[in-house]
Amino acid sequence: MFSFFKKKTQKEKLEDKFKKLMKEWHELSSINRAASDQKYAEAQDIVKLINANK
Fold first, then answer.
1. Angle at 10 between CA 5 and CA 15, to 5 degrees
2. What pTM was computed for the model?
3. Rounded distance between C-alpha atoms, residue 54 and residue 52, angstroms
4. Each residue's pLDDT expressed in tens, for the chain with a length of 54 residues
5. With 0-12 CB in 10 A as exposed, 13-18 as middle and 19+ as buried, what is 7?
6. Quick check: 45 and 21 in contact, CB under 8 A?
């Protein structure tokens, strides 16, 4: 009923950060390849953290 009071778990926070990084990666992919690659690498690090916390 009051799900907006519920705190996010560590996994949910990591998933949100992953989604944000992937969005930035996609936006940068046609503008700045080096920055795009850096965002993608950061996103892959987040995936490793998510998988490690299962």
1. 100
2. 0.83
3. 6
4. 567 778 889 999 999 999 999 999 999 999 999 999 999 999 999 999 999 987
5. exposed
6. no
